[in-house]
Amino acid sequence: MDYSIYDAVNAGFGKLVFVIRRSFEADFKEKIVSKYEKKIPVELVFQELDNLPEGFTPHPDRV
Fold this sequence. Notes:
By secondary structure, the chain is α+β, with helices and mostly antiparallel strands. It has a domain at about 1-5 and about 15-45. About 35% of the residues lie in helices and about 15% in strands. It is built from two helices and two strands; from the N terminus they run αβαβ. The protein has helices at about 1-10, 25-35, and strands at about 15-20, 40-45. Helix 2 (about 25-35) links the parallel strand 1 and strand 2.
């Protein structure tokens, strides 16, 4: 992930957006966001595994 972020910043991206589950927000901020937030803006967007469009049924092995 570090290499992808490095390449994105060098390509001119101006913000990092991570889509995560709210249940590990604190750990993610501590381990990931803290590494980058002084160099580039970071935004977290939350998505839960059970928050799906109406009528969509995920594969039973999805985690």
